[in-house]
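My current task is to audit a protein record that another person submitted. Thanks in advance; the entry in question is below:
***
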Amino acid sequence: MSESKSFQLGTIGALGLSVVSSVSIVICNKALMSYLGFIFATTLTSWHLLVTFCSLHVALWMKLFEHKPFDPRTVIGFGILNGISIGLLNLSLGFNSVGFYQMTKLAIIPCTVLLETLYLSKRFSRSVQFSLAILLLGVGIATVTDLQLNILGSVLSLLAVVTTCIAQIMTNTIQKKYKVSSTQLLYQSCPYQAMTLFISGPFLDKFLTNQNVFTFKYTPDVLAFIVLSCLISVSVNFSTFLVIGRTSPVTYQVLGHLKTCLVLAFGYVLLHDPFSWRNIIGIVIALVGMVSYSYYCNHENQKKTIEPTATPEAEEGESEPLTHAENGAAAFNDIAVSRAPERKSERFMHA
């Protein structure tokens, strides 16, 4: 019982850290891009990952965690896939309207549920599915405005959804399969993610913004916000892997939509962004879905706990889908940001 309580407290701490750090970085990035004009999203994300790796390397040197190497092909493939998913999310944002991009983000949850059901044999009860539907409806009402379709944008969105879902599922399964912690996985995969974006970022940002990151005028204010964003990103990246490892990709996405609602609210309160009754109604519906999701997941977890199991194998198979409190941009959706100056204030609302 003490181990169970300790795990629950650790999970709550991971969720709280993820929410606070993600909302903080979105507000920081919004100030950086909307008000200071630094709109190079992919390049900024590569800097985030480089700073994260350097921070973890210092932590390893201080013996705060143990380095645990495992299958290098898995690490390299996982790191590159995460980098590609971030690039595709930014391309999707560049070639689609804000509304369609938000629909792309909403599609990640049902796609993740489908993939986990088909390939991992996880089961999601009707109550959980209904809660997720309410959540997506609320977030859709609050965030989706214009829906403009085009073939290239639709293809990029589809690829972004699939790669993000696979990357987040891998974040969970790799930690369990190789028995590595979130810190160990992040430390080993971070260089490959960073290099993927560090090489492609300047070209991708120039293509999307028609501006060059190397010729941008770096004022002291811009540099200060870039440093602050990079420091916050260490917590964002760490908490992302921690949450997905302790819960699941689906729960991480539910948490992501909670962040979206909080960003909308904080944007209105702190930055005086436009806010309508539609936003309020959508947020309320989304919160109902989140509370319902949490309730049914906890209820099913408790039910699984008290049910006797015939064999250890059966116990493991039954409990795994609900390790997540139902058991998360790529994993870095929180820091993938906007491209067009004329819409950058809107496009921050996707953390």
